[in-house]
Amino acid sequence: MKTQLSRKAAHRIYIAAAVVILTVIAVGFLLPIVLTVTNSFMESTEISANYGVIFGSAGTVNKTYIAEKVNLKFIPDQVSFSQYITAFVKSPAYLLKFWNSVILVVPITIFQICVALGASYCFARFTGKFRSAVFFVYIILMLMPYQVTLVPNFLVAQWLHLLDTWWAIILPGIFSPFSVFILTKFMRRIPSAMTEAAKLDGAGEWKIFSSVYIPLCKSVIYSVAILVFIDYWNMVEQPLILLSDPEMHPLSVFLSKINAGDIGLAFAVATIYMVPPLLLFLYSEDYLIDGISYSGGIKG
Questions:
Q1: How far is it, in rounded angstroms, from Cα 300 to Cα 288?
Q2: Are 102 and 287 in contact (CB under 8 A)?
Q3: pTM greater than 0.85 (yes/no)
Q4: What sign for the dihedral angle of Cα 117, 119, 123, 126?
Q5: Name one Pfam family in it (predicted).
Q6: Quick one: what percent of the chain has pLDDT higher than 70?
Q7: Which helix (H) or strand (E) holds 176?
């Protein structure tokens, strides 16, 4: 009896310790986000008083970090929307960069999923050595970092006369192998009995694809869409290499230039930049968890 009580007590202590540790880790991850949001509502004078000059002036070549102690302040003395007024009204360039990000990322996310659904259905439904070889190539391409394929992408875009156009980024993004790999692995878990039952009802390949596979893959489609959106929403190398016109750069590239100037404005623009992926995650959180865990009603 005492042994059982001691085990229960030890288990409760273990659970409590795990909760405390995980809470501390979660707070540590959230602190930079909270700091960014709250500081975006501070006046420039208050930000300067707390942080001083983080960098040297934007015109200097050698930028030095501040040597004095930084006062991290999470609650502003007086709430101000001046930084947001500057971002939305006084300096429309920031808002333009935001829409550049939307124009680039949304088509990539939508059409990459569309292409991946068709390719994944073929990989999952049909067998053969040729299919295995092509899928192996997809895996190799997925494992390669973007820096490895940057030069070939640049040369192909130059050959197709797509440099300095959004197509130079959108087209490679549409045919990225990441979504194909994830969706194929999920579709292969769909029981063949469902396909056979659909065939007995007179369904063809398109009917099986649209009425059986896509509904069952709803959770993983959402999860892949979120991951693709976040990946390309934060892209930096592609616009810097393939777009020479700064007016076409997304906000992810432009944020570094803001940091060299007004820190308060950088907080406000960074907060605006976080809104779309955050809303997408909150709306599709359940689907993301189901997709990653390969659930969604299909147990292999």
A1: 19
A2: no
A3: no
A4: positive
A5: BPD_transp_1
A6: 84
A7: none
